[in-house]
Structures are given as C-alpha cells and as structure tokens.
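debug: dumping io for the single-chain case to check the tokenizer round-trip. Nothing else runs in this session.
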Amino acid sequence: MPRHATGRRLKADPKATICVLKVALFGDRTIWRTIAIRTDQTLDDLHAVIFDAFDRFDEHLYSFWFSPGGATGPDATRDGVEYTSPVEIEEHHAWGEREFYDASKTRLSALKLRPGQKFSYLFDFGDSWWHELTVEATDGKPGYGRVYPFVMEKHGVSPQQYPDPVE
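debug: decoded output
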C-alpha cells in the first residue's frame, strides 16, 4: 500500500460500519474491484487501497469528486465537490478558484454515502486514470480481527500504470 501523505490515523469510532464500494475504470467497466472500508476511515485510506487494488507502483496526486447531479468521470469536475490529496490542497488554495477539501481529514461517515450513489476518483492528473465508484452497502458490521480497508474481489486485469507508447 502506498504511504499515506499525512502518516497519521484518525481515532477509531466504535460506531463505525463497513462500506462496500465497487470501483470500476471509467471507460472500461469490465475492470473493477470491490472494496470494504470502515466508515471511520478517510478518503486518503480509500485512495491507498484503490492504488494497491489496481497494482499501481508510482504515487501521484489524486482527487475524489461528488457531483450533485450524479455525473461521474471528467463531467463530475464541473459542479462536483472535490476532496483532494493533502499534498495538492495547499496549491489549490493558492489559486483560490474554489473550495477544496483534504481527503486525509475526510471520513467516509461525513460523506453520508448511500447505496446506489456514484462518485469519481482521479488518480494521476497527467495520465488521468478515472474511476467510477458505486456504493453497494453502508451498514456492514466490522469483522473481528479484520484489517480495513481491503479488496474483497477483483475482476479483470489491471492495465499497466504506464502503457507502452504506440509507435
């Protein structure tokens, strides 16, 4: 798993439940992963498990977008609320264009996720690996002794992080 940008963990919430998310590559929904994560974990934790689930090796900036209209992928950026890497947050604020939120300080419980809801995740602002996340469940009970988050299921082969250039 990649190193978290902050290196800190928020205090566990004894009332936390398990959220199950399906994470599919935007544009090729035959490649997807199902992830279980505690609702007291952060979007930074979610980024870390997605990074691992898609066999990535080189860290890059990332953001999550929650669009009020349900748009996903690049369309979500227009009106969506953005939660971004703590590394990127200071640069965003320097431009002052709009409000951004720190993914390492945002617990899933604060997002009020509901089954069927969709949102977007962009990994690597240069190569633009867009993902569509679908909330499958939000009320699971944590398994005793289980370490969260974790990948429950993988479908399809992960594409290379840096595809060979076409000649």
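debug: round-trip ok. Confidence is low (pLDDT under 50) at residues 1-5.
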